[in-house]
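Lab meeting notes turned into a lecture example. A postdoc, R.K., suggested we walk through two folding results consecutively so the class can see how the record format repeats. The first protein's sequence and structure tokens come next.
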Amino acid sequence: MSKFLPLWQYIKDNHDQDFQLSFNQIQKIVGLSIDHSFLTYKKDLLDYGFKVGKISLKNKTVDFKKLEDENDNKIR
């Protein structure tokens, strides 16, 4: 089970289009700091109808993109 499951559920339940979250917002949702393991777990978000877009270390933000259709949800 992904340690980012609370974030994926939050995204699925609260967003129907592209959006951005700060690292601080993600920390509040998940209960832990975002770290390099996020890069490993981010593929799990595809199962929730979104993908991770740009990750800005300078601005400490993550862009999330709504998948256009089922063809974007590729088998991993």
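The second example is placed directly after the first for contrast:
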Amino acid sequence: MKFKQLVCLPFLLLLFLTACQNHDYSPKPRAYYRINYPEKKYQVFEGIAPYSFKYPVYSKIESYKGSDAGNYWYNLHFPQFNGFIHITYYDVNGKNEYNKLVEYARELAFKHTIKASAIDQRLINYPNHKVYGIYYAIEGNTASSVQFFLTDSAKHYFRGSLYFNERPQYDSIAPVINFIKKDIDTLISTFRWKN
């Protein structure tokens, strides 16, 4: 019996050592959480603000409470996605103030140039409703992925910026950004100034 053990033990040890020589290791890709998107349904925001628009039923509008808050400033929260659209409004008093606000919107969008891989601009033009502006789509690991402003070119100025309460990782939040972009497009296309 001892002889069989002496012969079998080295043979098993040799078999074990040669069986573990696989160098074809490849790392597994990262997995991401499955995201269940809600059905697209919209409701109208009117309130006391000098504007109205449609926004998704799965979001919440809350008054912005920051120390720099102005009249009719809101956050449109998307609790399921841990993100929000920060909304600001200004009453425009003259052409100089209007030009400063438009330039400020451009500066804020292009501040992301350091981390952005691309910044695309699109004109917003709904002359029947006197809604004009620029839409900035910002790609890359930036704090804000979408920024836009709307104006009547005379006395109203409305600005929105999409943010997430997470560290920016564009690859992982890109599907959510694309989902919310459709909501932003609806907000813009249904936007109206009140007289």
